[in-house]
Amino acid sequence: MCGRYVRRSDKQKIAEWFKAKNDTSNLPMPDADYNIAPTTHQPIVRQNRETNERELVLARWGLVSFFTKELSEIKGLSTINARAETITTSKSWREPMKKRRCIVPASAFYEWPKEGKPPKQPYAFEISNGSLFGFAGLWDAWKDKDGHWLQSFAIVTTEANELMSRIHPRMPVILHSRDYDRWLDREETERLPLDLLRPYEAEEMEMYEANLKVGNVRNNGPEMLKKALDAAEFGTLPL
């Protein structure tokens, strides 16, 4: 799964990178976030229904389906990731997959080994050239009983590539820029871009040890991408 990620770019750079055309001046978001956690509101890129141009908006991480009755129905981390293997059959994912696909801007993401005893050493993964990239995402809109709308998203995951599989059997789907238009196209509802839901090339990624403190959502800052200097207080680290 993908439960934490990093965004080093501000909204202007994100809008320029993903060619979003809307006015982002009023989006309330920090210039960077080094420990993005579920239920927080984060920038996503999608296709505007009226203009078909790309737009940058904020949405809650943890998809709330349009048919949800109460937010209490959403349990834990169950909707932060959408498995590529069930994306056309799952009740939560099949409609967003048809017409509400998005891109989730990121600079890196974290993962912890699936096996072993805590404290587990977290690892950071990013593109080798250090550039901004985009996860394949799905979004939805839900209205509560008072008529207030909540827009939310999930990150699509697939089987791990050779690099990622050293730590975990799954990884988020990272899109190539050449495929952004296909993924975002709201008109393409019959020939779904399922072929894009594949592992990113391992040779184009880097992996390194991150700070143990990234496990606490209150810890944030560029130091999260570095191995903790005070790791001794956490005990012996796994190899």
Automatic annotation (TrEMBL):
Gene Ontology molecular function, alphabetical: lyase activity; peptidase activity; single-stranded DNA binding
Its EC number(s): 3.4.-.-
InterPro entries per record: SRAP (IPR003738), SRAP-like (IPR036590)
GO biological process: protein-DNA covalent cross-linking repair; proteolysis
Keyword terms: Covalent protein-DNA linkage, DNA damage, DNA-binding, Hydrolase, Lyase, Protease
Broad enzyme group: hydrolase
Family membership noted in the UniProt record: Belongs to the SOS response-associated peptidase family.
Protein's UniProt name: Abasic site processing protein
Biological source species: Granulicella sibirica
